[in-house]
Design goal:
alpha+beta; 5-stranded mixed beta sheet; 4 helices
């Protein structure tokens, strides 16, 4: 499988092959990697955002920013509920 769309309450993430490449965020602007990978990945990104015209308007950011956000969400949603509660408690302090 070349692409995977991952749904979380905070964001929807597009993973092309093994690389996070785009994020639609619920509480902030969408973002896409500034790194070019392939024609296939570009097509996937365009489809993810609803067409090339819309994808070109999305903020381009460094790949490492996409990686950090997507990895955090992935790890957060895979951790036990008691760990999530501690994280939320820490954030609210």
């Amino acid at each position: 499988m070349t692409k995977k769309i991952i749904y979380y309450p905070q964001a929807t993430i597009l993973k092309s092959y093994d690389t996070f490449v785009a994020i639609k965020r619920t509480a902030a602007e969408d973002m896409v990697t500034d790194q070019y990978y392939s024609k296939t990945t570009t097509r996937q990104i365009n489809k993810f955002f609803g067409g090339a015209e819309k994808a070109v308007m999305v903020e381009k950011v460094e790949q490492k920013i996409i990686d950090v956000i997507a990895t955090f969400l992935e790890e957060y949603h895979n951790c036990p509920d008691e760990v999530k509660a501690k994280i939320l408690n820490y954030i609210e302090e």
